[in-house]
Design a protein that fits this description.
One of its GO terms (molecular function) is potassium:proton antiporter activity. It is built from 14 helices and 2 strands, in the order H-H-H-H-H-E-H-H-H-H-H-H-H-H-E-H. It is mostly helical and 390 residues long. The protein is globular.
Length: 390
């Protein structure tokens, strides 16, 4: 905010909004609600999402990058898992593909929506955006591998339907957890500099014959700003007390989002049916809902010329959505009353393949313009259109 007074107002608003959002839950949970309640719940849901963004950014600023990007990625995954499990319990046969539809939607929305809008906003403000190709490329490679293992291969197994057998699902879940854990260790420990913002006004150095980038005398190792402070204006990080308060309010905000989204789930399903859209579009709406906090945070980072943080959020969310959601749903499927169909259809596989190819071409140079952002957003539009008109 431009004014300390406005910032103080914002801080107070984000403190009481999540608490206020919890109040309607006892009166609306598990009940058929009317139009007035739908409007009220929708407004409170939006306020909770914005509050979650604010508190996540405070915590992220305190812990520094790339740890900060993990906070929101894990948080929205908790929301996603809670919504999927809740809807699968009460969704009947139509819920067998809900996990697949939601996770695939999250992958496309993050890899094309969050990445695309971040590149476009960043390039519109700063002409050309730069980022670490090493870390971003590693994140994209993990996303592609996880998506193939958990969403593509089930379509081609000998099991009836696009599903894994029990042993195959166990292998996929353990592999996904191990790969996600390996990435987190790589991102936060040994190669942390690969995921930090590139130093401003520095050109990316050319790789030497050995494959390592040449470093300039003025640029730290990895060509990044490793000052632990990710605010564009180099503001002082918040105190431990402020960060702990924001962490607590972030948890309250997430509980409010999960609860209110569950209340809204039936109206969403009814609205999808009334519009004549396929039931799988419910997964798209869930993904759009739970990724709203990360999308806003990524746009804010891109406007501050911190594109690396935006990409960390985008690809990190895609990775968490697969690497944490699928194993959790795999365990929950033991008690769920419906089958778990994870395999994608042919149209979805083609969209995933194009997204992977365009993503690789975007990441490899280590810098991008409005064109790359536009390409990803067109792919997002194609996904949304085909999801509504399969």
């Amino acid at each position: 905010m431009d004014s300390p007074r406005l910032q103080a107002v914002l801080n107070r608003w984000t403190l009481w909004a999540p608490v206020l959002a919890l109040l309607p839950l006892p009166f609306t949970w598990g009940r058929h609600i009317g139009a007035v309640w739908i409007v009220v719940v929708t407004l409170l849901l939006g306020a909770s999402v914005l509050a979650a963004v604010h508190h996540a950014e405070v915590v992220a600023h305190r812990v520094g990058e790339p740890f900060g990007s993990l906070v929101l990625a894990v948080a929205v995954t908790i929301i996603e898992v809670a919504l999927i499990v809740t809807l699968m319990v009460s969704g009947g046969d139509d819920a067998s593909t809900l996990a697949r539809d939601t996770v695939f939607s999250a992958v496309i929305i993050t890899c094309n929506g969050i990445v695309g809008i971040s590149l476009l906003v960043g390039a519109m403000h700063h002409h050309t955006v730069t980022f670490n190709a090493e870390g971003t490329g590693a994140a994209l490679a993990c996303v592609i591998t996880l998506a193939t293992l958990c969403l593509v291969l089930p379509t081609f197994t000998s099991e009836p339907g696009p599903a894994y057998s029990g042993s195959q699902l166990t292998f996929a879940a353990i592999s996904a957890l191990c790969l996600y854990g390996l990435f987190v260790v790589t991102q936060t420990r040994r190669h942390r500099d690969f995921f930090l913002p590139v130093a401003k006004h520095e050109h990316r150095p050319l790789a030497t014959a050995s494959g390592h980038a040449a470093q300039s005398a003025e640029q730290p190792a990895g060509g990044v700003e490793d000052d632990g402070n990710d605010d564009g204006e180099h503001a002082e990080p918040p105190s431990n007390r402020t960060a702990l308060i924001s962490l607590g309010m972030l948890l309250v905000s997430l509980v409010a989002v999960v609860g209110l989204a569950k209340v809204e789930s039936k109206p969403i399903e009814d609205g999808v049916a009334w519009l004549g859209l396929p039931h799988s579009f419910v997964g798209v709406i869930i993904a759009l809902l739970v990724l709203a906090p990360e999308t806003l945070a990524a746009i804010n980072a891109a406007r501050q010329d911190r594109t690396q943080i935006s990409l960390n959020l985008g690809y990190g969310s895609a990775m968490a959505s697969i690497g944490l959601t699928i194993p959790t749903i795999a365990v929950a499927s033991i008690w769920l009353p419906t089958d778990l169909h994870l395999g994608l259809g042919s149209t979805q596989i083609v969209l995933l393949a194009i997204t992977a190819g365009v993503g690789i071409l975007t990441v490899v140079p280590g810098r991008a313009t409005r064109l790359q952002g536009g390409l990803h957003l067109v792919l997002l539009a194609a996904f949304l259109f085909l999801a509504a008109n399969p």
